Amino acid sequence: MKIIIKTTNLKLNQALKNFIEEKINSLEKFVEIFETEKYFDSFYEKGKPRVEAWVEIGKETMHHKKGPYFLAECQMRFPKRSLRSTARAEDLKLAITEVKDELQGQLKQFKEKITAQTKRRARVLKKELKLSPQARFYRK
């Protein structure tokens, strides 16, 4: 998974960058199933990562000293789908954690939807392939 970080009205230091990468990389366990899934094979270009996370953090204004003025946004792009989360908080790390938690819920829901569709297709196929009870097979 490729992570792209953009800052607004902030300077990105190494500690903050490591914190963001740690939080977003914790979502990789939910993304791994999509990278092996044939769901994306027709949309995948060689050399290009299948999943990209665009993270934007920043201060909304420079003059406010209290209230939720830190903003964190993350958009995860899949070949067929995009998930987005936004959070505002008084602390930047708290906003990043809220974004991660919201994306984690969306990823779980997305995963459940894909597995449900696969199972539904399998049930329909099994129903269509059922043989008649009158069919007899003889061995020679």
Automatic annotation (TrEMBL):
Sorted alphabetically, which keywords does the UniProt record give?
Coiled coil
User: What InterPro entries does the annotation carry?
Assistant: RHF-like (IPR036567), RHF/RaiA (IPR003489)
Mind telling me which Gene3D superfamilies this protein's record contains? Ribosome hibernation promotion factor-like
Spell out the SUPFAM superfamilies in the cross-references: Ribosome binding protein Y (YfiA homologue)
The residues forming a coiled coil are 89-120
Keyword Methyltransferase found: no
State the name under which the record lists this protein: Ribosomal subunit interface protein
